[in-house]
């Protein structure tokens, strides 16, 4: 039970830190744009680029984290089964590849976002 | 990072399920029982992954050595489960290993009893006592060679089992060591149910469900032995039953002491918790042994159904460990029984008839 609480606490902390860091970096990144007396068009362009990059990073990052968690579990189970019955290795790899697909989806999404900015 | 059910059971679940898939397959049973003689049966075992068993048979030609090797293999499964689990689950798996250790203590005590009380030679059989550590650190040689109750108490002084050895076993020439054996069973179940509270609620409930049937089976088995060998009344039996099983309805007997001597059956005692038993009408209510054996079979079937449900249900629970260890024990008993029948030259048809 305490392990579950600890896990929840770490997840909440990670999300809070992520949000805070994103806020700070976006603020630092946008400050010069506001500070300078450049035209409003340039400022708006920078802001779009900035959010686009963040969105692409999130798409790829979360995809990779999700795939990591999935592969950890699927891989462990696959190793358990393969250890007992090596002939099922090829079947087990299919399930690992399915989990691996998550990060590919994230990567494609990131590329699509980058193509728009 | 904290553990989820998937990360906790993912590896062990896959490993044990793969092993379960190989335990007592129809092919294996068919080929093993169809083998012409013991030599051929051992060859079948070799082809199905029991190379060590075949090796022991080939080098000794002794059926008891083969049985002993099967026991070692079964105990190795407990170690494997412990090795491949962590934290609370590992602690729980070690609690389950107390059961084979208690069986080993009982076997050793029976040998000791045969030697010290009944004055039978035991030197040959004492070679087949498992002496490696299972759960507690027990000096098996000291136990089998004990000359007094103090020696026995000394062996169990710092173990979980010390409270089972309060009576002088050497005085039990007439009644055997049943009571000590029951005390050991009581210790196992009480300790398991108490210590397993470290598990998650869902896991604990699965365990409780299975253990309840196991205790009922054990109690029925004790009832048969006490009734059959010592003609003990139900009221006397009430005190020695292992707690934690179904609520055996001894109150029926308390209301009518006369009934206890004959017409009340074990089936009557358990009906409340197993309503399916009501469907069975038993013609001879005075045939206690027949009743109890039928009940034992029914409870065994109920347990099998529960294990099947565990296997087809949500996979990430402690159930997979219980099922695997149960099946491992069943496999050991099955092979041992087939080999013995081959040894005593029992035909295939006879074996099939006797299950």
Low-confidence stretches of chain A: none
Total discrete domains of chain B: 3
Average pLDDT confidence of chain A is: 84
Task: For the record, give the distance between the C-alpha atoms at the N and C termini of chain B, rounded to a whole number.
Answer: 50 Å
Number of domains of chain A: 1
**Largest contact between chains:** A-B, 21 and 19 residues
- Helix count of chain B, per DSSP? 18
**Shape category of chain A:** flat
Task: Tell me what the structure shows.
The complex is a heterodimer of chains A (117) and B (355). Helix content of chain A is 91%, strand content 0%. With 117 residues, chain A is mostly helical. Chain A starts with a helix and ends with a helix. Chain B folds into three domains: 44-84 and 326-349, no CATH class; 94-198; 200-317. Chain B has 18 helices and no strands. Chain B has helices at 5-20, 26-34, 38-47, 51-60, 63-83, 87-96, 98-116, 140-144, 149-155, 178-195, 201-230, 234-240, 250-255, 257-260, 266-270, 288-312, 319-343, 348-353. The mean pLDDT of chain B is 85. The A-B interface holds A 1, 3-8, 10, 72-74, 76-81, 83-85, 88 and B 1-4, 6-7, 10-15, 17-19, 21-22, 84, 200.
Brief write-up:
The complex is a heterodimer of chains A (117) and B (355). Chain A has 117 residues and is mainly α.
């Amino acid at each position: 039970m305490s392990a579950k609480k600890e896990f929840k606490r770490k997840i909440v902390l990670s999300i809070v830190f992520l949000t805070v860091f994103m806020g700070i970096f976006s603020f630092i990144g946008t400050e010069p744009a506001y500070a300078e007396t450049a035209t409003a068009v340039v400022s708006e362009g920078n802001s779009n680029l900035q959010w686009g990059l963040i969105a692409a990073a999130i798409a790829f990052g979360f995809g990779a984290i999700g795939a990591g968690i999935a592969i950890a579990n699927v891989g462990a189970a696959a190793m358990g089964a393969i250890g007992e019955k090596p002939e099922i290795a090829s079947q087990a790899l299919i399930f690992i590849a399915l989990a691996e697909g998550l990060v590919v989806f994230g990567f494609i999404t990131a590329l699509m976002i980058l193509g728009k900015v | 990072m904290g553990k989820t059910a998937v990360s906790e059971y993912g590896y062990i679940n896959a490993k044990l399920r793969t092993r379960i898939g190989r335990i007592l397959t129809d092919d294996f049973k068919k080929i093993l029982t169809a083998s012409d003689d013991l030599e051929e049966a051992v060859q079948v075992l070799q082809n199905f992954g029991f190379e060590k068993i075949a090796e022991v048979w080939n080098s000794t030609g002794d059926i008891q050595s083969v049985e002993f090797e099967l026991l070692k293999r079964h105990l190795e499964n407990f170690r494997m489960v412990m090795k491949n689990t962590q934290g609370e689950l590992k602690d729980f798996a070690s609690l389950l290993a107390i059961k084979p250790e208690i069986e080993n203590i009982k076997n050793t005590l029976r040998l000791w009893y045969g030697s010290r009380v009944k004055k039978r030679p035991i030197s040959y059989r004492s070679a087949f006592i498992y002496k490696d550590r299972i759960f507690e650190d027990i000096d098996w040689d000291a136990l089998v060679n004990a000359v007094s109750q103090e020696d026995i108490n000394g062996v169990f002084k710092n173990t979980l089992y010390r409270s089972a050895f309060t009576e002088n076993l050497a005085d039990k020439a007439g009644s055997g060591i049943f009571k000590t054996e029951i005390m050991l069973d009581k210790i196992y179940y009480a300790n398991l149910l108490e210590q397993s509270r470290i598990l998650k609620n869902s896991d604990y409930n699965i365990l409780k469900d299975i253990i309840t049937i196991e205790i009922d089976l054990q109690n029925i088995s004790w009832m048969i032995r006490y009734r059959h060998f010592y003609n003990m009344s139900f009221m006397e039996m009430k005190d020695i039953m292992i707690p934690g099983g179904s609520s055996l309805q001894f109150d029926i007997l308390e209301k009518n002491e006369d009934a206890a001597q004959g017409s009340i059956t074990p089936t009557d005692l358990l009906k409340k918790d197993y309503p399916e038993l009501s469907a069975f009408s038993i013609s001879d209510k005075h045939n206690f042994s027949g009743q109890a054996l039928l009940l034992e079979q029914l409870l065994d079937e109920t347990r099998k159904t529960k294990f099947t449900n565990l296997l087809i249900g949500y996979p990430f629970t402690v159930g997979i460990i219980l099922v695997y260890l149960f099946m491992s024990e069943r496999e050991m008993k099955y092979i041992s029984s087939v080999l013995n029948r081959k040894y005593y030259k029992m035909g295939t048809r006879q074996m099939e008839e006797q299950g």
